[in-house]
């Protein structure tokens, strides 16, 4: 059966689809005692409002924001928009493909190719072994290719982690040429690995959510633990190289107050931090400008992640 | 052969002993061209100055501060103190017992007993298994019992880690009674484990030194890695308990700027942070007061770790 | 006449009671011009909504949030909750027992006993005289036993100051044993006294409010002034002991940015600050976990006093 | 007998005078074993070096920096400067006039007059009573007129407190005219009183030193305690005026991190803080420029109190 | 034709006037599908609500908050206030006198006089030439006399820049007498010039708005650029005086975090910063107290610019 | 006449050369009263010690550190190093080529070429006109090619500004390709111009020194002033482009506390800030590692500009 997407719903259609529950609210009837249920349903293509007129309290109690729900409804036009008159709304517990609900980053196929080329380009055999081993583990590789780079702000898309990691690693490859004393392979490997903890930090179902591990450990520590267990499986991995890679992961935020327990202590770690910042900033400014609401003004509204208004003049 | 200790040297003695090289400096002869070598030698009982009049440049080049050195010399009196006229001074490369050079914390035997009693008192079987396994590994246990709690400031003594960990764990045991909603076993286990990364952070030979791992990862991350590998070896260790223990280690400094990548997120983690601070502060104030130099004033000099003068009135 | 409490009101009852006015709002009639008055009334057992349909503007103008009001009304059921149809609502100006409106801390009787035992246990005669004198003054003693520990966040309960002070003092008694160089009596006395300024910082009528003195001076300075006047009345109180006690009061927040004009300068002051923090943190984490709203998630909502979400997993 | 001052000593004179011991150091003889004592002696007019060739160790042990010493010596010329060959140097324990050792601020007589005129100008009877009472107490008045405004940096002169207080109060008088909603009498009284705690913060003998009270309480809290006891003695002093004055004292540093436990909460307190800053800054910049050492450069060296170099171009 | 002002509108009047559009909102009809437009209109005398019942979506789309609009309407009474039933509302694009929409500071005529007297009083010929030249340029002079001192908080009035600059300059003139080493002319000239960049930072039409230049450069940099171009036109203006004046402009906020790229480096720059702060604080406290809403409490609500509640007791 | 360089001086040579005076100190003769003058002389190739035995006080008074001095002397060997026995040392006042005294950055010729290619590559005609005009002014161009990038830390070499600017601009060119929404020409032009104020911030004679303009305005403001005057000379330069370029200069430090009066408000400004940081960090880490002193340890000493030790393992 083809899936019905939000942006395909038209007034007059009978809707039978699966959506993520974004908002739920009990509201009083205008003319009578009692409440109806107002919901917002969404998938990767957009959001639509819905109303459940009967059994609202009961439905409200058994559903949670973030649930995947199977909905039967009639689509109508209300005040110029589409609205669903819901007949039934039931929680779906089965396995769900998050790609139905969360938009994906662009250029994923190309990013995968670049990832493999970058790994193949490593002259340092130990680093190449480590990365080959890690990215050939099917579970890890799939998780890495699907994970977002954040729950909010920049790269909150399926595949965001992959795209961000490859962008930073490619820039690292480039920059290494300007600074001959930099160890190119260490820098590139560190760039690929720096955010791997994010495969544990986020969970994608109806939306991107932070996991308990994400909140209790964070991707910096989770990444160090993941890497440490991977290194354990590479025979004769040099101890000083292990310390350098682990250091690059834990120092890549650059400052204690940004949750790095160490600040960068050598050139490659410092470069990695700067390149990570560069891509994160570029992403946030680009998105802020792209998402500007008031087209009459050259300024965006307040951008929370940047704590400023952005100029698009 | 009995070892000669610094506090046993008297003017007139022929000295043949092993010491840690604390300071070395080339100084010009007063009446002629050329230099002599002025050194400070030390062990756990104190320090003594020495002079090498011949071959100073050569000796200075082959010795490093922190080396263990075998010294032959004559002890003389100079300006009211003992001074060594050195005949030969040679680096010792063999295995050395750091206990000769670094003073030990008091109450080590009692602290070991309390440690075992605290582990035995755990009702949570998984926590008891984990701690029993960890502290029954000979290498780890010996390292834990010998490690200092710091390279400077508080607990810079052999066994300082053990004493500090047990003091905090015992206080945790006590405090848990005041707050019935606290999980006593989790708190006590976390208290015992919170600083285990320090077995990787410091190296003790002639003095306490920070290792490369200590500088690149720090005891917070090293501790998390150590604990993670230990948990791997306990069958069926619950994932949520693993996250809680790891969180307690990485959050025990309490603030990002104090190098914790996460702040405490639950009661036991918060209590652990506070109890760690309490013992560290008590230790620093006690030592500052005990080490006051000017006995005519009720104030100590500037105490670096506390960034203040301490009142002893 | 027995007082009617909010949690005793049932639909159908005629209500004639005294409550604290928590919220007042003028809202427009749905079907006609003009406004009605929507109020929230409360006491220590809970809150209830009310509606005044006639004379709303006039009532709104003469009542203030925080007032104690005598209310006559009919209780009805509305959308599944109890609501009061108010016939009259009049401000009460007389003396009111705040215990009707503000919940009390648990264990007050036991806390009083522990307070007296702690004072009796002081071996230092000057400290014992000072505390005996202070706590035997009826006005002060009653104020101390009734005052909350805060207007919000932790210990915002009648008797909160007493319970907090005794908890900290008992912990101080305990901790003093671990650190033999600590002056146990000074520490215990300081712990009992550290927050006495709160008897001037808060006023309890229908709710806990900060006084002008609380806002202009704060409990740290008010506490120092109170203590200074008490010490004046103890014959031959030693000047250095006076300075130490005053210092413990003004430094107990530990940092300038937490409104202490001095940071702790000696061991007992440092311990007091840490013990105060420990109890405050334990209280905030416990309350946050106890008040968690979404029972499906192991995380609380955002906790303002802690600036984080708390994990209850 | 006329006192001999440092700036009157000439080579060839027999010196018999009383000085403050500023520096003492044991230095080795150049040509023989043993040490001599090198001292720096000073009074309000300057400093002079001295040498004690015999009995140096014994003298060094019995003298402390800061002592007042009676010295007999021969003045000689050495490397172009005056130096004292000391025959005897003995600690003086008696009462000493600090004016011999610490320079005095300029314009003290005029400042006293302005102080009395400002007090006399107060129209608010309660404020006038309070200030009249306080400044008519002989001990307090003398201490106020002699106290420095700081131990270092700005106003480290006898009478510095008086001059600073009067300058700020006169500026307050002026400024009050620009802001008609300011209470001129409250502002002027607060300005006169804001630093009175400094009579307890400093002790003047051979030099300005901070007292134990200064270090444990600080002039902000000492000032509040002093004022509170003075207010107690004014019949029917209004409670709100008491709170306002106390608030002005404790908030006059303006920020928590500058050791004010409250920030200014009303106009007069805010103006007082700004006027205090203005005079302190003017004093530090003027002194920095006046004390510039390298006359070839328009820049002073690093000025610690200002954390910058000052331009004098 | 006389202009109709908001505070002249009475129920029953036919309104035909020009206003600034302060708020616009589409709201659903209560009894039928579709929306009406709710607006707030304002001028310097106040604000009034309006309703447009027909063509709401179209009007909402073509109007922007901040627009000047010509309105035809009937004034009615609604819930005790005046409300406009709007017949037509059309954007006005022509030149508008902002004085109709933005209130003006008091004492503008006197401030202009004081400005000219202060310029005339300069003994330094170069400074007098510079200021005479600048303030004799008609465009600049008019902009300077009309500009506000801020978009929010203090001095958000037409002419606020003039009044603030003259107040600071007059205080500078006064203060210069207390500190004889201050260069009075430099200080007064710097005070007059310190905020000239604000003529580029704000635009006044229906309200005070920040310009793109204000947001991208800020008045500190714009002021330096303006001054630099003015100095270029004064023959033989000394380079060191140019640097001092420019420094006073860029350092007058006093701290990096307050957007000064340099901190004050000489006395006059330091005094200017303090005097600017004094006037800004006085203004904010006075306004906060004047604008207190709850007359039953001696405290204002939260004052954003001061980050505190202000006491008016 | 060929110039004598420090690294060409050998014991036994008669020296007649011109050097920069790095250090001067009066030291007492060992065996007699009076002083000799100890100096350190330097040029771009190194430093050498010198002694003036006669007329030391007079010479010390007439010479200043930083002076260029003509020296006649005999080179001797002393304690294994070369030392100059100075016969005469006289200040040189004439024009001096700083290239004799300050080392030059590598790759200057190539950097100039890349600069011209980058300017030629600009498609935006206004930007190309501006940069062509600016860099074709001989005085500015020479100053730009000679200026250092800093007085200390990174790029303290003649030509450092050129090399740094070109490196950043080339990286900008590269990065612009990754972010298609970036305006490549604006970014490259901003990168070339971002530090032009440094031609006014530093003066090179015997060493790199900060000018009065550097200390009073700083290169951020000086750069904006320079750019503004250059833009004035380009006909019809668009106002919005002027604001953007000026904004990029004043925001390139990225944070208020790093002396930027504005934070970056658009993508190109944000990228420029990050690229500037990247090159500065790379430079500091590379230099720190290259300058490591203790070759036995993988760690450098404390690096002031980075506030850390750098790992070179």
UniProtKB/TrEMBL annotation, chains A, B, C, D, E, F:
**SMART domains assigned:** HDc
**What's one Pfam family the UniProt record gives for this protein?**
tRNA_anti-codon
**Sorted alphabetically, which InterPro entries does this protein's record hold?**
HD/PDEase_dom, HD_domain, HDIG_dom, NA-bd_OB-fold, NA-bd_OB_tRNA, YhaM_exoribonuc/phosphodiest
Keyword match Hydrolase: yes
SUPFAM superfamilies attached to this UniProt entry: HD-domain/PDEase-like, Nucleic acid-binding proteins
This chain's protein is named HD domain-containing protein
PANTHER family from the entry? Answer: 3'-5' EXORIBONUCLEASE YHAM
GO molecular function (one): nucleic acid binding
Keyword annotations for this protein, in alphabetical order, are:
Hydrolase
Domain HD: from-to ranges: 161-281
The highest taxon in the source lineage is Bacteria
